[in-house]
Amino acid sequence: MRILVASPRGFCAGVNMAIAALECALELYPLPIYVFHEIVHNKHVVDGFRARGVIFIDEVEEVPHGGTLVYSAHGVSPQVRQRAVARALNVVDATCPLVTKVHSEAIRFARQGHEMVLIGHAGHDEVIGTIGEAPGRIRLVQDVEDVDSLELDETPSLAYLSQTTLSVDDADAIIGRLRQRFPDIVAPPSADICYASQNRQEAVREIASEVDAVFVIGSQNSSNSRRLAEIAREQGVAAYLIDDTSDIDPAWLVGVEAIGVTAGASAPERLVEECLDYFQTRFGGVIESRALRTEDMHFQLPVELRRAAQDNAQSAAGA
What we know:
The chain is of the alpha/beta class. The chain has helices at 13-28, 43-51, 78-86, 97-111, 125-131, 144-148, 168-181, 195-208, 223-234, 269-283, 303-318, and strands spanning 2-7, 33-36, 54-57, 68-71, 90-93, 115-119, 138-141, 158-162, 213-217, 238-242, 258-263, 286-291. Helix 9 links the parallel strand 9 (213-217) and strand 10. It is flat, with a radius of gyration of 21 Å. 41% of the residues are buried.
């Protein structure tokens, strides 16, 4: 069996930063440490932190007064921030800077008097946080049909934003329809879909033409991982989104001579290695790397952690 391994794959800069931030918080602050929603959308990452005493919550009020709360990579709404202040929480903001960029655009568009259309998936943490920046000013669209059914009382000054983890092709189709319906719609200064999502989508499209099936390592609630599987299917090959090797059904591999392997932006590389070992052991697989480009993006730890680490170092030096 040929095993084509896509690159780039796995952790992006935003996920690396968020996970490193939570690791650092565990070193600097006493337990329990709370995280608003999942730090990243991956079952193995979340379960690993949970085993170390991290508590994942859905409501700020679950954190004791004065406790430590980490915001996930997906960002939060201003309402969540206000509730954290009201409870005097020690907050660590691990929001991906590329998500923060979209929030900033929403705030700026609202100040400029624009109504907004947000292209994204209903219920996703990132979408909830972005809509919270301008309540009542943002309409969510998930597909071209939603654009066609948009009803505006007047013809307002309109702008659009996008969730960072969308399929580039899907987003382009929706943007194209928005421009047809609203020729004067204002675009963000630069594309909202993040570099990592685009790179992983291009890489999986590259290998899909050479294989009979694609295995995407990632959790079901990971938007960017689901997009990778969808893109592979659009190329006419079977695609499976799996958390790990335990999800693999051997029947999927009957008659398969070549497979592609990739991982969503929140999936650890060790899960990729375990899958490659599985395919090599059972099918005598020969691994071939398909590197589309190199990523060198890096985000600093949240400022709260850098200050806390500096204070600890100064205290230790003084002692």
